[in-house]
Amino acid sequence: MRTQAKAESVPRADFDHGFSLIELLIVVAIILIIAAIAVPNLLRSRIAANEASAVANLRTLTTAAQTYSTTYADGYPPTAAVLGGTSTTPSCNGALVVDNTIALPPGQKSGYTFTYTGEDGNVPLAAGCTAQGFNGFLATAVPINTGITGIRSFCSTEPGEIAYDETGSTAASESACEALPPIQ
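RESULT FIELD:
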């Protein structure tokens, strides 16, 4: 008669199951190092993208003001709201040439606040217009949170040149904007 030897089960040691505490701590440390390297780069990339978007939107606002002046013979628009509008037919009271997100208050897009003011005195009121245009304008784009959504502020006047301020401050006047370095 053959006897079968019972296979004795040998209990496995606890350290054979899963990861040790040291291994887990090493993995967590590596993840934290990678995050510490990646997060600042991500923030810088986001700021650069917001600044590029702000310049593009300010260029659109400047071109729209030039277009308004040429099309309606009412000088430069009295407000940014006149460049936007909600009607289906463009007019000197709602030109429909700018997105309302930057034309209407609060005028915020891509981490920047956009403002537009008429400057240099009024021109005679054109037929059909409800507000007098201006001989000049100042358009600005300022970061909502300096250092987080953007670093530099931007401005433009009727010559159409966009300038920047490294401090993120708002240009107070046309002359202050024209004194800033232009974007290359």
